[in-house]
Design goal:
With 132 residues, the chain is mostly helical. The chain has six helices and no strands. It has helices at residues 5-18, 20-41, 52-55, 58-79, 84-108, 115-128. It is elongated.
Length: 132
Amino acid sequence: MESKVPYLIWCNLYFCKLGGFHESFYRCYCFGFFVSVSGLSFADTAAKGPNPSFANSNIHKLGMRFRQAMEQVQRDQKSGKLTPAQAKALRAQIGTIRKAEIADMKTNGNKTLTDTQATQLNGQLDQLQPSL
């Protein structure tokens, strides 16, 4: 990409010779250009990660376990360790546990789980683990 600096220098020389409207327009244009460029340099460049309070919550941990369980079922079915019927049954059990999680969050009213609820759901997932 070619630099625009020589072009800007040429424009500065050209418009300053014209004077009047062109000179004031060019100066306003340059001022706007440099303000916008300086605004970009001060922009927040910190990486935006997940919300720390949510990343360590029970919901996040359970969500990861649900995902890993579903992926494991898919891998086992693909490798032949599970028949399609067995995989379907395991997916249904995982789905039932997930629906229980959603119901618990709705009863709490604030989209969170208590430690007791999380422990109970983790226990249900642990019971499925030997099948996976």
